[in-house]
Amino acid sequence: MATDYRKSYEELTERVRQHQVLDGIGSVLHWDMQVNMPPKGAHKRANQLALLSGIAHERFTSEKVGELIQLCESGNGALSEAERANVREIARDYSRATKVPHDLVVELSRQRSVTHDVWTRAREKADFAMFAPELEKLVALTKQYAEAQGYEGTPLNALIEDYEPGASVEFLTKLFNEVKAVTVPLAERVVNSSVQANFDFEKNRFTAEKQRAFGEELIYEIGFDRQGGRLDTSIHPFCSGGLGDVRLTTRYNEHAPTQALFGIIHEMGHGLYEQGVAPETYGTPLSEALSLGMHESQSRMWENYIGRSLPFWKKFYPKLQSHFGGELSGMSVNDWMLAINHVERSLVRVEADELTYDLHIILRFEIERDLFAGDISVSDLPSVWNSKFEKYLGLTPPNDGKEGVMQDVHWSGGSFGYFPTYCLGNIIAGQLWKKMNADMPTMKQKIENGDFAEILAWLREHVHKLGRRFSRDELLLKATGKPLGTEDYLSYLTEKFSSLYKL
Amino acid sequence: MATDYRKSYEELTERVRQHQVLDGIGSVLHWDMQVNMPPKGAHKRANQLALLSGIAHERFTSEKVGELIQLCESGNGALSEAERANVREIARDYSRATKVPHDLVVELSRQRSVTHDVWTRAREKADFAMFAPELEKLVALTKQYAEAQGYEGTPLNALIEDYEPGASVEFLTKLFNEVKAVTVPLAERVVNSSVQANFDFEKNRFTAEKQRAFGEELIYEIGFDRQGGRLDTSIHPFCSGGLGDVRLTTRYNEHAPTQALFGIIHEMGHGLYEQGVAPETYGTPLSEALSLGMHESQSRMWENYIGRSLPFWKKFYPKLQSHFGGELSGMSVNDWMLAINHVERSLVRVEADELTYDLHIILRFEIERDLFAGDISVSDLPSVWNSKFEKYLGLTPPNDGKEGVMQDVHWSGGSFGYFPTYCLGNIIAGQLWKKMNADMPTMKQKIENGDFAEILAWLREHVHKLGRRFSRDELLLKATGKPLGTEDYLSYLTEKFSSLYKL
Fold first, then answer.
1. Model confidence, pTM
2. How far apart are the C-alpha atoms of A48 and B127, rounded to whole Å?
3. B-chain residues within 8 Å CB-CB of A52?
4. For the complex shown, is ipTM > 0.85?
5. What's the CATH code of the domain at A310?
6. Would residue B267 show up in a list of annotated catalytic residues for this protein?
């Protein structure tokens, strides 16, 4: 009866595709909310997103889907290995979705929109008291969500699972401790090195228009498909959408041009992952990114490993200089390299350098863990934030807004357990990068020639086109010959910064 | 048992509100498709819109909604007059929706997206053969739709009913003949008048950026709420969304600045209608525009009756001149008045003047009528278009693209029977305008002072806030003391152009 199993498989994937279509609608609504929506549209948009989530959840969690999954699982022999992987991932999503009561799904969606909307205004005014009541409601609902999912150990584990399957607070803590042990002393040595960049971007004005134009030119030249994507402006930079329509956003600071520049390259890294999925798997888990950590490995690889490297700027720095005219005159490519790899203790995560960035993440990770364990409450966040900031980064945030506890969009949108995937992305990228160098001995020369085809092909082959077919460790084992570890990442950081700063 | 009827009414309107929320999502997706979406996103967007239409249709046409309507109708005595009107309109929508098979709804939505997408490319290449196959499919599906709805007389009547309840080919033909009888000879006299504008916008460049900035300043000064709306760019200008989030679009021609300028004022007229609905009726028919003809009466009133009048430009022309710097120097406000009211036989509807505009509409209306009666087929469209154009406007279209049969978006989106509402809007505006002048003797002085509060209040009171509470004729009877007729419109045209051109 192999044909019956096949028919069930087709019916199941068709239903999953519909679910993904609804997800895609939600993605457009979210993008629009952050890029276009006028202020008074917030209430209506919250209703739209809530109703859509409810409908999507209701349809996906129907008993019929459960029956089809069971049928497909019992007929595994009739399916290919890729199809079995699809069924496995659908079953995982179904199991997680059915654990959450329908009303909670709708309520969470609505509260996310409302909290996000208040955040944009409270952040502007640096008024945490304005933000706190809506954040409290969101945390309470998210705790209900964690309980519904169930977890071992601490509640945050249930939330992390949504972003990084198979990770846990314990596992992440171990990796992050290894990272801290190397980056803290290394950053100290870099900051105290006599070699330092001689630059002052502040004194010139780099217009947003010129920044945007150069950024666009760059990503299209690297290989981002402009027929299937675009670049816009939003308060918090992000990448959304998928194959055929990938949307990147950034924000411009006219006296700090590297922020948007590397922000754009970063989001392009996410975008290339989305554009690199296998088209024939469209609408199923096999066309979805493996995890947020894997996603972040792609953005950080393009932003830092490639984007902040000398070969890259040997190619593009002359273009950048001529694009901006006088604003960069007198700065050599070596000065530029020191400028874009300048290390300092700073207040804002998205402006942090490659070396101190992980400390920003680890700080947030610990706060999330304690918040969901019930050790601290929402009203404690500003003081806990500030004291951790002093401890880890030696700085006192001057306010609770853009330079303090409300700087990030994540918590306002209910994305708790998301932050650790940033640091994990750095670690994964390090491991992939080492293998890419071994597999492609002329890679750096090609980067210097502006030829990214081989790199893109490698990433598509070993990461992008696989989607959720393998677990993170399986994928890394196939691609690099070993499971996830921090060794390659930490060697890369040590070598790069020792060489740049002549340590 | 009055309380039971009330409970049914609350339940019914809650379901209708959900339907409107889904409609609102569709509106964002459509807007995005025309303003932002990259080309390769078309297929995915078509799937999104089709699935959304299907879900909305399925939920709205459920038996439960039918039962609630019946309950509310039988308990009419327990409801207020406004509530009874709401039930009447919901019943109308339900009846129309349940007549269409679910599969046809989904198929029509998908085909609309596909045909629209092909149209954007075929229009660019002026390649009707590229467009025809997808248009044929859309016409065939739309004919099925008309049959499902049922009609008296010709199939187009079933389609018109979606845009202009209570109108028919026969009724419209009568009105349009009255219009033609006056405007054709009047246009002839204007074209032959010795008084003519002395202007040549072509020789200067009016940057899109300056046009946009002035247009935005203007609409916010008139009273368009920028906290609940925005202005963007698209191939075909439109207004979408509703209270809280009204979106206007336009397009810029840097050598014909009046196109975008009056386009923006026109769309603002639509937007003011949407922003003027009664907030407490949100999500029900009472918060929806009465008909497209009534909608168009608002856009044409602001664009032509107010926007192309001398009092308006006595206020704004100095601002316009200083905004553009040298580009308008040497042109007096009287020259400007002749320039913006210049009459000529032209190829493109959206660039047509106030006087010949109706001829563009009548031509399309006749083609739609014959296409749906089966007297002509899709492949005949270019030749029928061209021969009617020669007959009514004395011009031979040079191509089938932007200056020919593919110039308008409407047919590509399946909006057949929509065009006559433009001419109807002109006629309705004429009737309202006459009464506004009688009710507000100092209105023109107030326009000259840039004070639009009284006008907006009149329109909100007599049109905007009523939504679909009354029929078109009931509304006009209440507002102007008589049912719809062409007399006031034709007097207005005759007086305006006789005076301007000293006939």
1. 0.91
2. 39
3. 25
4. yes
5. 1.10.1370.30
6. yes
